[in-house]
């Protein structure tokens, strides 16, 4: 108990699992929590301060599953193991206690076990910190070693957090009080772990980073701002704490420049269902419909590309070049995919090895990946020279990305030697547990072979002994083995009596009597047992030593192995995109700096695939927008009956932009896209009652965000703005928003509405046109054509849709009557022609004052965090701002 209490005191917030022989035992309050969470029996053991100590326990061999469940429920788990053999402890005296210590703290963001991780998803730990008014995010994916860091504008925090989708977030204590930041963290940050301000100081953060990376300066990784260092430092501290000092192999932090990416705010990401549906499932999301990758690393990379599409045309085109090059090379693609399919998750194997959690199987995974990588490089290299000229006789050069992949996969001499060594050393299918031994091949190490043959020979000797004793005594002697007694002779009661009766020399020593059996040993057997066990232990110790040597060599080569792994992931994604492009008859989008969005016969990737699976056709649709207004409308008003396909049309165009900027071919006949800087979607928000916001309030919050943040390079889809309030209020808001988007923001916009009155904007505003999704009424039946055509719809056919939905006939009939009456009633017709023209250009009413840069910076400073030197620096900065 004293040992327990002392260890528990170091990890008060975690559930402590204490190793006791074959079990992990849980005591006190932890036992109560765990027994409820894991449906374990709650018992008691001993007393503490006069009270019973509650106890629960889980078998050590099944601990992973229990830990996973606790983590999923949001707990942290500290695992305390036995650090020595109980026999060692006994040497110190019979009452000595086995040494125990924390070997790791398991938290949602720091998992590395395959059994606890989603194969195709990322598991990120994120840290958020701020220095001098600048906010920074750092993210690590411990199971693959990827580290990213970026500065964020407070307005972009939601977008960035939702792109990273952390499982766990470390947050500097004082940011927890920030009214704008905390709600975002709560929504998108996973499990939040507040961190003391003392850990956010950049100087100590830098020291921790140097230790983590084993370098003497961070200069080789680039330049980082104090806020970025502070966030990275938080990660380093937490990794140190949770991994009990073991240092993972991490890639150098890559600095994300937000301006190089298409920004997608959190609400948009949710509503477009990029990586999961609004119900939280992968199935039905964009990624599920388009993921053709064959490796888990490739799948994760595709997800990260879709979560953060690019903004620079050159970078997008480089990816597209690769897909285009792979597209006609079907045999090559098949061969590459076939080879990659047999790869296991190399990145995670490497990470386990570096955290001392790996086994011989992980070494095999690395060797196999190096082998396959080399094969891939050869196949690509051959293909590079296969078609030197195209049909027109022009030289065909492989895209740059392919050259890069080949270069990354051809191993250096030391790495290929390491691969050879691993292949020589390891058996084909090593046992799951290292402690079982038997993973090193015979012939690799002479000492090991000798120890093994000693062990095997001894077994022969046991057999011989068994036969000899049987012959000598005339009794069918059987020698058996168990972990407690070692080797022993086991006889039935009757035979035992017979043996003892004739054993005049007392050769057979009694060991144990069971109900029906009696067990004996002989001095010879004891000696033999010792010899066998020593040989086995010696063999195992040698194997462990060899394993550690190989593991250290792999660790040393980690950076090159990671580069190769990244190249395979990129290849997998490009091949997958080419496969998809062929399956779908997809087109390469033309990407440039223009302000166009022109799609011919585009299809919704998810809806079209779902309909296809049901054997139903999908109607392709065009879109034609130009933010400058020179070539076509800037804003299209989309009307049409309920169920006509307005939302599908809107989302389809947004999704195609995401795919195109992620560097993928798109399901369309053609697409011309002037790159989009920000994507906004206001499509059917749900309530956020937890935050005290009604549906209408949420809709207004999101619309406000669009109107304040969009630029003329943005793309916006707005679905039924204003529908959640009284008709006139809603129409007025929708009207004003459309005007503002057109006159002030100039962004390419698709605006779906049931307010048919809005169609009057065409003609009134220069760059607005009307589109409608068509339906036809035939013999009282409504037929949806799902075709987007020029012009506006005249009605919504809501009552017909209600009938289709199975509303009682009496209600539908009554609704029809009321509708006719309302339509006849001229009073309800709006006199829209009386509205003043160009109202959106009216000078805005004095808005609430936006804080100046000086004020924002001042607000971001926490005097308690500053050293005198930093304070002086801040004063200089503020003074500079005053002059700006
Ligand atoms: N282009 C299309 N081709 C074939 N089917 C389509 C197409 N577009 C939409 N659909 C089908 O029509 C259904 C309704 O589409 P959607 O939700 O987009 O309609 P809507 O006009 O937004 O309706 P409401 O105004 O009631 O919200 C979809 O679930 C889909 O199955």
TrEMBL record:
PROSITE patterns: DNA_MISMATCH_REPAIR_2. One of its GO terms (cellular component) is cytosol. InterPro entries: DNA_mismatch_repair_MutS (IPR005748), DNA_mismatch_repair_MutS-lik_N (IPR007695), DNA_mismatch_repair_MutS/MSH (IPR017261), DNA_mismatch_repair_MutS_C (IPR000432), DNA_mismatch_repair_MutS_clamp (IPR007861), DNA_mismatch_repair_MutS_core (IPR007696), DNA_mismatch_repair_MutS_N (IPR016151), DNA_mismatch_repair_MutS_sf (IPR036187). It holds the Pfam family MutS_I. CDD domains: ABC_MutS1 (cd03284). The keyword Ubl conjugation does not apply. Residues 714-730 form the DNA mismatch repair proteins mutS family domain. Gene3D superfamilies: 1.10.1420.10, 6.10.140.430, DNA repair protein MutS, domain I, MutS, connector domain, P-loop containing nucleotide triphosphate hydrolases. Coiled coil: none annotated. NCBIfam families: mutS1, PRK05399.1. This protein is involved in the repair of mismatches in DNA. It is possible that it carries out the mismatch recognition step. This protein has a weak ATPase activity. PANTHER family: DNA MISMATCH REPAIR PROTEIN MSH1, MITOCHONDRIAL (PTHR11361:SF34), DNA MISMATCH REPAIR PROTEIN MUTS FAMILY MEMBER (PTHR11361). This is DNA mismatch repair protein MutS. The lineage of its organism: Bacteria, Pseudomonadati, Pseudomonadota, Alphaproteobacteria, Caulobacterales.
């Amino acid at each position: 108990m004293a040992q327990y209490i002392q260890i528990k005191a170091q990890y008060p917030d975690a559930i402590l699992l204490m190793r006791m022989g074959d079990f992990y035992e849980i005591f006190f309050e932890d036992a109560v929590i765990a027994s409820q969470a894991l449906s374990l029996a709650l018992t008691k053991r001993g007393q503490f301060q006069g009270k019973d100590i509650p106890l629960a326990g889980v078998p050590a061999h099944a601990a992973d599953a229990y830990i996973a469940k606790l983590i999923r429920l949001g707990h942290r788990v500290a695992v305390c193991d036995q650090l020595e053999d109980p026999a060692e402890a006994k040497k110190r005296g019979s009452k000595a206690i086995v040494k125990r210590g924390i070997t790791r703290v398991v938290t949602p963001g720091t998992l590395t076990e395959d059994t606890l991780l989603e194969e195709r998803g990322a598991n990120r730990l994120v840290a958020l910190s701020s220095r001098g008014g600048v906010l920074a995010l750092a993210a690590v994916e411990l199971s693959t070693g990827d580290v990213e860091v970026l500065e964020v504008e407070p307005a972009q925090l939601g977008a960035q957090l939702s792109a990273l989708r952390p499982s766990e977030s470390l947050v500097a204590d004082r940011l927890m009080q920030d009214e704008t930041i905390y709600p975002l963290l709560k929504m998108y940050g996973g499990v939040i772990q507040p961190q003391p301000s003392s850990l956010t100081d950049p100087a100590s953060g830098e020291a921790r980073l140097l230790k983590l990376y084993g370098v003497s300066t961070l200069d080789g990784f680039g330049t980082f701002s104090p806020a970025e260092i502070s966030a990275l430092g938080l990660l380093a501290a937490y990794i140190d704490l949770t991994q009990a000092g073991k240092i993972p192999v991490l890639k150098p932090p890559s600095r994300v420049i937000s301006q190089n990416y298409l920004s997608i705010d959190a609400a948009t990401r949710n509503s477009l269902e990029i990586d999961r549906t609004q119900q939280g499932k992968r199935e039905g999301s964009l990624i599920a419909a388009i993921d053709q990758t064959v490796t888990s690393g490739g799948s994760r990379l595709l997800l990260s590309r879709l979560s953060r599409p690019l903004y620079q045309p050159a970078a997008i085109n480089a990816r597209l070049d690769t897909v285009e090059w792979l597209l006609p090379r079907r045999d090559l693609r098949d061969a590459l995919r076939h080879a990659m399919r047999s790869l296991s998750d190399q990145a995670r194997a490497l990470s386990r090895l570096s955290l001392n959690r790996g086994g011989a199987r992980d070494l095999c995974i690395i060797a196999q990946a190096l082998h396959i990588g080399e094969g891939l490089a050869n196949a690509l290299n051959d293909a590079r020279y296969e078609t030197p000229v195209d049909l027109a006789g022009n030289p065909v050069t492989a895209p740059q990305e392919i050259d890069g992949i080949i270069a990354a996969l051809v191993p250096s001499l030391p790495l290929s030697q390491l691969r050879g060594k691993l292949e020589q050393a390891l058996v084909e299918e090593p046992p799951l547990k290292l402690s079982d031994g038997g993973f090193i091949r015979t012939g690799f190490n002479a000492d090991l072979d000798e120890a093994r043959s000693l062990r095997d020979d001894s077994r022969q000797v046991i057999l011989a002994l068994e036969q000899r004793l049987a012959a000598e005594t005339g009794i069918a002697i059987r020698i058996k083995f168990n972990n407690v007694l070692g080797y022993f002779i086991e006889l039935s009661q009757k035979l035992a009596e017979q043996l003892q009766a004739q054993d005049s020399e007392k050769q057979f020593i009694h060991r144990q009597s069971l109900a029906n059996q009696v067990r004996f040993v002989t001095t010879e057997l004891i000696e033999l047992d010792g010899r066998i066990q020593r040989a086995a232990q010696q063999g195992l110790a040698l194997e462990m030593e060899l394993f550690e040597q190989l593991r250290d060599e792999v660790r040393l080569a980690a950076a090159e192995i990671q580069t190769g792994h990244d190249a395979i992931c990129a290849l997998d994604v490009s091949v997958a995109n080419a496969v998809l492009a062929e399956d779908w008859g997809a087109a390469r989008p033309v990407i440039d700096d223009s302000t166009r969005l022109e799609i011919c016969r585009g299809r919704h990737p998810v809806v079209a695939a779902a309909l296809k699976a049901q054997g139903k056709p999908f109607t392709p649709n065009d879109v034609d927008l130009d933010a400058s207004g020179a070539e076509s409308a800037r804003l299209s008003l989309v009307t049409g009956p309920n169920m006509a396909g307005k939302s599908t049309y809107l989302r389809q165009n947004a999704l195609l932009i995401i795919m195109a900027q992620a560097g993928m071919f798109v399901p369309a006949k053609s697409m011309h896209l002037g790159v989009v800087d920000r994507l906004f979607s206001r499509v059917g928000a749900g309530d956020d009652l937890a935050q005290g916001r009604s549906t209408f309030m949420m809709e207004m919050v999101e619309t406000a965000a669009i109107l304040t943040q969009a630029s003329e390079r943005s793309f916006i889809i707005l679905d039924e703005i204003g529908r959640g309030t009284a008709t006139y209020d809603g129409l007025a808001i929708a009207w004003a928003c459309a005007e503002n988007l057109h006159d002030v923001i100039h962004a390419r916009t698709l605006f779906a509405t049931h307010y048919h009155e809005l169609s009057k904007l065409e003609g009134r505003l220069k760059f607005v046109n009307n589109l409608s999704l068509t339906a036809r009424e035939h013999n009282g039946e409504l037929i949806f054509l799902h075709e987007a055509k020029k012009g506006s719809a005249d009605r919504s056919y809501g009552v017909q849709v209600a009938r289709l939905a199975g509303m009682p006939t009496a209600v539908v009939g009554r609704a029809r009557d009321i509708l006719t009456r309302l339509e006849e009633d001229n009073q309800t017709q709006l006199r829209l022609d009386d509205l003043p023209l160009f109202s959106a250009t009216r000078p805005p009413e004095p808005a609430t004052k936006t804080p100046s840069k000086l004020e924002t910076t001042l607000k971001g400073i926490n005097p308690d965090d500053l050293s005198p030197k930093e304070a002086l620096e801040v004063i200089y900065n503020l003074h500079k701002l005053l002059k700006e």
